């Protein structure tokens, strides 16, 4: 699963709404936007770190002349070195940070829910909103079925079609 910047406001809104409806947290209506902003800040910071790692990975791969098919492996190495969780682990990390944030937030009046229960709710909300990278990859590869993978032309076209698919789905970063 992958988090896109365009999804963050809706996810934050759903988290506050759902946890309040479940009685897990209490947030006054006048503090609702600030509580949502706290959640957005956590997700934004995660994406900033992710972006730094992606940029370092690209620079490293370019300097070492490594092909794009090794991107995931190289990125994983950089992420591990920095202690930055990725993929589903990253989403679980974000959920834990949100729960910790509730305990310190001046905009969340009370926390009644158990961490385990609230984390399940958060993960359900994330699963509802997040895009499986494999789905995007399948769609792009389906459009490029007449090209040979691994060639420079294929990689350029893959990027172009991937950007097009993301735009169509409202996943602009």
State the low-pLDDT regions, or none: none
Helix content: 55-70%
Mean pLDDT: 90
**Number of structural domains:** 2
N- and C-termini, Cα separation: 15 Å
Number of helices: 7
Order of helices and strands: HEHHHEHHH
Topology:
Elements: H1 8-21, E1 25-26, H2 32-64, H3 71-82, H4 87-104, E2 110-111, H5 115-129, H6 133-143, H7 152-168
Antiparallel strand pairs: 1-2
Helix pairs in contact: 1-2, 1-5, 2-3, 2-4, 4-5, 6-7
Structural overview:
The protein has 173 residues and is an all-alpha fold. It has 2 domains: 5-130, no CATH class; 132-173. The chain is built from 7 helices and 2 strands. The chain has helices spanning 8-21, 32-64, 71-82, 87-104, 115-129, 133-143, 152-168, and strands spanning 25-26, 110-111. The chain has a two-stranded antiparallel sheet. The longest helix has 33 residues, at 32-64. The model has no long low-confidence stretch (mean pLDDT 90).
Task: List its salient traits.
173 residues, mainly alpha, two-stranded antiparallel sheet
Quick overview of this protein structure:
With 173 residues, the chain is mainly alpha-helical.
């Amino acid at each position: 699963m992958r988090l896109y910047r365009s999804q963050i406001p809706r996810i934050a809104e759903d988290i506050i709404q759902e946890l309040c409806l479940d009685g897990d947290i209490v947030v006054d209506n006048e503090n609702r936007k600030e509580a949502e902003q706290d959640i957005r800040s956590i997700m934004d910071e995660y994406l900033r770190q992710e972006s730094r790692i992606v940029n370092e990975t690209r620079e490293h791969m370019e300097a070492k002349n490594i092909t794009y098919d090794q991107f995931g492996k190289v990125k994983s190495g950089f992420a591990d070195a920095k202690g930055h969780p990725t993929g589903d682990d990253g989403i679980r990390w974000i959920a834990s940070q949100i729960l910790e944030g509730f305990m310190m937030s001046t905009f969340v009046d009370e926390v009644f829910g158990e961490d385990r229960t609230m984390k399940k709710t958060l993960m359900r909300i994330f699963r509802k909103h997040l895009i499986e990278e494999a789905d995007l990859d399948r769609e792009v590869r389906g459009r490029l079925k007449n090209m040979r993978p691994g060639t420079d032309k294929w990689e350029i076209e893959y990027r172009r079609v991937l950007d097009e698919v993301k735009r169509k789905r409202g996943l602009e970063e």
